[in-house]
Amino acid sequence: MLKGNILTTDGWIHGTVRFENGRVTGLEGHIADPLANDAPYILPGFIDLHVHGGGGRDIMEGGDASDTVARQHAQHGTTSLLATTMTAPRDELMEVVKGLGEQAKRRASGGARVLGVHLEGPYINPGKLGAQPDAAAVAVRDEVLKYLELAPIRVVTIAPEISGHLDIISEMASRGVRVQLGHSLGTYDDAVNALKHGARGFTHLFNAMSPLHHRDPGMVGAALAHAEYAELIPDLLHVHPGAIRAAMRAIPRLYVVTDSTSAAGMPDGNYMLGSQHVTKCMGGVRLADGTLAGSTLTMDQALRNLVSLGIPLADVSNRLSRYAADYLGLEDRGRIARGAWADMVVLDRDHMLTATYVEGESIVEYA
Predict the structure, then answer these.
(1) CA-CA-CA-CA torsion for 338, 340, 345, 349, nearest 10 degrees?
(2) Residue 4 included in any domain
(3) Model confidence at 81: pLDDT above 70
(4) Number of domains in the chain
(5) What is the SS3 assignment for 343?
(6) b/e map of 155-180 (b: 16 or more CB within 10 Å)?
(7) Which among 48, 67, 259, 343 is annotated as catalytic?
(8) pLDDT in tens, 316-350
(9) Cβ proximity of 252 and 221 under 8 Å
């Protein structure tokens, strides 16, 4: 049982939430303004749909790397995540995805639930790699279906302007995969056509995509004009606070991701991002040429960053939990409600994490 200011699907209540066998069993309290008392905040656990690594391990390593990553991010309030791949040669990527399919069948003790895979590449534009290795490929139906057989592929990032990719978008969307547009030089019209073919979101909005110009609105313009969902990295390095605010006003269910690397939770130094060598320094992760290469962001810090911009805590919480769950069609995660998974975080009045529960398991409690 937890007591405090609980953010429910209907708003804040002051009361108690009970859970047993991994599920919420009771929710009692009265409507209350959390600013009118000094009780802790109890929020849905964070859901991160774009995670490359953490704790010194990278998803592309395979093996038990995803367990370490899941444990590292659970220490920062993430209760479920998507293991996110990097662009790589076909055989290497197939092997990694196969391993992730096995890992997704269980949850590592002390770790976040790995809900499946975000395949970020290889179906991207080689002219907009960002920090992705130079192994972009054109999507072929049989190959795509093989990935879907190997693991629960929840999200795929794709460049829609590549010949044949609109048909692939339609195929994947028909199979329940959330197709996102990103790492793309596509035009506004390319993006709009992709949305008509079943694409649902945009990968790390603003980054690695054709920018907004008032006579050439590009991918960013299409997202701001038409998207219901898009992911964004609020580490305050990838996107200016003004652009964050603009996106929040334009995209109803803009949600937060970390795009975290193996350097998350680690000291400054050299790390791997897929096959790329990256350096963590001054809070960022970069390639040798200075290109931003993922982040060191954790979801609890993302929450504090957004709150520092004056965004209400309830709105921030939705963007860290509920909208990502809704995007994947998960009705029993991303919210505190009877019957939902007991994925919750407890924050003190300074928005510092004091406890995390993943499917009812107490992960960490800070003094």
Answers:
(1) -30
(2) no
(3) yes
(4) 1
(5) coil
(6) bbbbbbbbeebbebbbbbbeeebbbb
(7) 259
(8) 999 999 999 999 999 999 999 999 999 999 999 99
(9) no
What single DSSP character describes residue 89? -
Token code pair at residue 318: 């939705």
Is it true that the peptide bond before 122 is cis, omega within 30 degrees of 0? yes
pLDDT in tens, 220-270: 999 999 999 999 999 999 999 999 999 999 999 999 999 999 999 999 999
CA 227, 233, 237 angle in degrees (round to 5)?
A: 130
d(C-alpha 244, C-alpha 236), whole Å: 9
Name the average pLDDT for the chain.
Answer: 96
Kindly give, in sequence order, each residue whose CB lies less than 8 Å from that of residue 331, ignoring residues fewer than 6 positions away: 325, 340
> What are the contacts of 142-147 at 24+ separation with CB within 8 A?
143/90, 144/168, 144/171, 144/172, 145/171, 146/94, 147/94, 147/97, 147/119
Active site residue 33: no
The answer to the question of residue 16 being in a domain is no
Degrees, nearest 5: CA angle 30-33-34: 100
Contact 20, 360 (CB under 8 A): yes
* Structural domain contains residue 221: yes
| Mean pLDDT calculated for residue range 37-46 | 98
**110 assigned to some structural domain:** yes
Kindly report, residue by residue over 224-233, the tens digit of the pLDDT: 999 999 999 9
Q: What is the pLDDT of residue 282?
A: 80
The H-or-E segment that residue 189 falls in is helix 188-196
Q: What's the number of CA atoms in the CB half-sphere (13 Å) around residue 242? A: 0
Global pTM value: 0.97
Query: Three-state SS for 68?
Result: helix
CATH number of the domain bearing residue 116: 3.20.20.140
